[in-house]
Amino acid sequence: PTSPPSNSVIIVGAGMSGGFMAAKTLEEAGYKDFIILEASSRVGGRLHKGNIGGHTIELGANWVNSGGPKSSPSLQIAKKIKLKTFYSDYANLTSNIYKQDGGLYQKHVVESAVRIAKTRDAFCTNLSKILSSETTRDDDTSILGSQRLLKEVPMTPLEMAIDYFFNDYEDAEPPRITSLKTTYPRNQLVDFGEDSYFVADPRGFESVVHSVAKQFLSHGHQVIRDPRLKLNKVVRNISYSKDKVTVKTEDGSVYQANYAIVSVSIGVLQSDFIEFTPNLPLWKKLAINNFNMAIYTKIFMKFPYKFWPTGPGTEFFIYAHERRGYFPIWQHLENEMPGSNILFVTVTDEESRRVERQSDEKTKAEIMNNVLRKLFGNKIPEPQSIFVPRWWSNRFFNGSYSNWPNGFTQQSYKELKEPIGPIYFTGEHTNSTYLGYIDGAYFAGINTANDLIKCFKQFSDGHHI
Ligand SMILES: Cc1cc2nc3c(=O)[nH]c(=O)nc-3n(C[C@H](O)[C@H](O)[C@H](O)COP(=O)(O)OP(=O)(O)OC[C@H]3O[C@@H](n4cnc5c(N)ncnc54)[C@H](O)[C@@H]3O)c2cc1C
Fold first, then answer.
1. Which residue, 208, 373, 405, 431, has most beta carbons within 10 Å?
2. Ligand 1: distance of its center to the CA of 397 in Å?
């Protein structure tokens, strides 16, 4: 018999999942003996506001879903603090798709391509249901595999652009990679609604974590004063035995507790940035490394004046190129910030890696020469500034959000979440229902903390787990 543990916990990471929802769940259950170690100088993680030309932009998460049978926690918090959100109206996109060398596709041509894309989508949902109902086998395919089965693989620039909008724009990885069974139907949309609202508020989307913090941490005006939150603590080593964890940070500090909750992204876990002593078992390392960290990049540009269409039905436009995902989805911010003259384009996956590696000047020239001048003529002005978020190169993230790859089994997913001795794992990637989203991080934090609390209780009942 060992002496009863004191239930102290070190939480690694101050994003939605760990530092906020897991910590809050512990606190509310009466377990107040925790500290939160955050590598950066701020909280919120992948909720992160930036600034271009005096306007607040969201470098990370941007949308909340609404209109479904359930209410999303991120939407509830956003409503509570009256965060400014704007309905993203994609309805008119069929009139706003540009050809590679400029000029719009005719509406009826786009409409018939969209009809086929919707057929593909419905087929994917159906096939996924069939695969899920089979309980003795864990068969899966990729979204592309499903399109091949239907004999409807997108081939032309227009078809690829529409397919990108349906899939990559959400998953941040191409259909060839993404698991069909775990992605279709998209729970986030089915449960919380297909209406997406774009957050544009000077306080930033990150103010939702401050709202959570206020409920359980001592807190001043957008500043958390609780001594249990420690910023600029870059965790580099976690040593563990059966009931003790020692955490070392880059600045030489050492912290000890009975348990740890690790909330860093799957990208950080894959990078070996944090060394575990002893090494994590091979099955755990395989589960971590076989999962995917996708990359999603919004490239913001501020211009001296507008040269793109404005007014109802113009917010979004698509650029269809023979190279899939080449500066494909565009959005202006005239509804959100009138007169801001900001345009942004979203790229993902290999295109994200490419723009992260090259200089912003080069990206700017590429966008101007290869895309915008083709669409809007040679007389358009140069942007005054460009902002390229670099989630992939940032060692505290190594990407944007997780994506379930085809071939990754349900068993591996269980192993991905499985605690190792006193070390528990959380983060958006550990919530199979809403992985990749803020809501996934929200529920993951609660679930992981509850698993740990269950373990505390078993110990106090005299049972060992
Ligand atoms: C570009 C982009 C767009 C997105 N769009 C949306 C969207 O529209 N809607 C939506 O719902 N979701 C979106 N997401 C996803 C959403 O932001 C995430 O799922 C969610 O914020 C993840 O929260 P988390 O707590 O799991 O991880 P994180 O927010 O990553 O928190 C983990 C924390 O750990 C810290 N950390 C890392 N390494 C260490 C270390 N060694 N030591 C100490 N601390 C460390 C990090 O700094 C971070 O603060 C987007 C994300 C990105 C990047």
1. 208
2. 7
What pTM value is reported for the model?
0.97
Is the CA virtual torsion 388, 13, 40, 47 positive or negative? positive
Query: What does the alpha-carbon distance between residue 60 and residue 395 come to, in Å, rounded to a whole number?
Result: 15
Distance, CA 293 to ligand 1 centroid (Å)? 11
Token digits of residue 1: 């018999």
- Look-up: residue for tokens 């059966």? 242
pLDDT at 135: 85
Q: Which single residue is written with the structure tokens 């399109």?
A: 147
Instruction: Report the nearest atom of ligand 1 relative to the CA of 18.
Output: 25
- Cα of 291 to ligand 1 centre, how many Å? 16
For ligand 1, atom 15, the nearest C-alpha belongs to 437
Could you give the CA distance from residue 24 to residue 212 in angstroms, rounded to a whole number? 8
Say how many C-beta atoms besides its own lie within 10 A of residue 4's C-beta: 10
Predicted pLDDT at 5: 58
Instruction: Measure CA 121 to chain center.
Output: 22
Residue showing tokens 């769940």: 25
Q: DSSP assignment, residue 179?
A: B
Cα-to-chain-centroid distance, residue 463: 38
Q: 256-314: per-residue pLDDT in tens?
A: 999 999 999 999 999 989 999 999 999 999 999 999 999 999 999 999 999 999 999 99
Complex ipTM: 1.00
CA dist., res. 228 & res. 452, Å (int) = 19
Q: Count the neighbouring beta carbons within 10 Å of the beta carbon of residue 137.
A: 7
Cβ neighbour number for residue 377 with a 10 Å cutoff: 10
- What is the greatest pairwise CA distance in the chain? 79
- Tell me the C-alpha distance between 344 and 372, whole Å: 12
Pocket of ligand 1 (CB under 6 A): 12-18, 37-40, 45-47, 60-63, 74, 234-235, 263-265, 268, 273-274, 296, 391, 396-397, 400-401, 427-428, 436-441
Give the pairing of strands 9-12 and 34-37. parallel
Cis link prior to 278 (omega < 30° from 0)?
A: yes
Task: Give the number of other CB atoms < 10 A from CB of residue 69.
Answer: 8
